[in-house]
């Protein structure tokens, strides 16, 4: 993505947050970003396309912050999930994500409504899969119900907190909601009570590009963090090489966030990384390249 297009997306994103989707006109975006109408339509077919791209950029930014929590942590620990949820909810509050979603759903554009519903589905799937990673095998049949209850309780409490201007913190609400879910899962498993099955859930929320790419991104972010830390240790006597490694790792991560990553450039960056002896024999690097290989990228 060229710098001018990225600037248009970033400036529009700020306007959407400040004013809302419907209240922001294309003229507002042109004025804020400093581009002509011709340039705008060269990048986007309509305002709705720009809104979707800005939302995807926000989601990518959120995922990076969310998955930083996993570095050097046990993914199966409930408190780690609670930390991730706090990052997500704080990010959503700061960027007014819920307001943007409601604004978009009020649109008469069926494509935009479908896009937002898919975002919501992806979040539901992410929570469900995180619960699968946290709870033991005997609790798995009850996790669809747990996901539904958790999201319902949490969202209702957060909404009520805003309505009555309550001083209770987001962390308190998240922790309370999780404690209810843990009790519910224990009770459901002991009494063998299950309302919705995983088969029904997968039928409504089938495995697809969204969840697979999200979990690949999750693992890649984690592996990237470990690789950066290892590079700091192994290359501390060679600052130029260390800076090159950081630059290449960051480039790969940012490139893969794009809708259509440039495979040749990613593979070229991996080829350069592969030539660094202090790097390519480490477990961190092997894990990093394995994840990228699964995604279809490898050194030339």
UniProtKB/TrEMBL annotation:
Tell me which SUPFAM superfamilies the record gives.
Homeodomain-like
The Gene Ontology biological process terms listed for this entry are: negative regulation of DNA-templated transcription
GO terms assigned for molecular function: DNA binding
Q: What residue range is the signal peptide?
A: none
> Keywords assigned by UniProt?
DNA-binding, Transcription, Transcription regulation
Q: Which InterPro entries match?
A: DNA-bd_HTH_TetR-type_CS, Homeodomain-like_sf, HTH-type_Tx_Regulator, HTH_TetR
UniProt cross-references to PROSITE patterns, sorted A to Z: HTH_TETR_1, HTH_TETR_2
Q: Which residues bind DNA?
A: 25-44
HTH tetR-type domain spans which residues? 2-62
Top-level taxon of the source organism: Bacteria
Q: What is this protein called in UniProt?
A: Tetr bacterial regulatory protein hth signature
Query: What species is given as this protein's source?
Result: Trichococcus palustris
